[in-house]
Design goal:
globular, single chain, 0% helix, mainly beta
C-alpha cells in the first residue's frame, strides 16, 4: 500500500514513523515535537492538512520539516 504524498520528491513514499513521517525514497522527514505551535497562513502541512507551515515548521501542529541529509564534516 502506498504512503502519503512526499512534499519533497513528489512520490507516494511518505510513511508514518514513531516521531512523525519519513519518506523512504528521499529521506525527507516531518517530526512532531511534544509541544504545539501557533497559527497563521503558509504552505500545506502533510500531517494536519492546514496551510500553516512557515520556515519548515507547522504553526498548527508543530511538525518540523527537514531534508534528512547530514552535513559533512571537515
Amino acid at each position: 500500500m502506498p504512503g502519503m504524498y512526499c512534499p519533497n520528491c513528489g512520490k507516494f513514499t511518505f510513511y508514518q514513523s514513531p516521531t512523525g513521517r519519513k519518506c523512504t525514497k528521499c529521506g525527507f522527514t516531518a517530526t512532531i515535537p511534544p509541544n504545539q505551535g501557533k497559527g497563521g497562513k503558509g504552505q500545506l502541512c502533510s500531517i494536519c492538512k492546514r496551510y500553516m507551515v512557515f520556515n519548515n515548521v507547522c504553526q498548527n501542529c508543530g511538525t518540523i520539516y527537514s531534508q534528512g541529509k547530514t552535513a559533512k564534516g571537515k
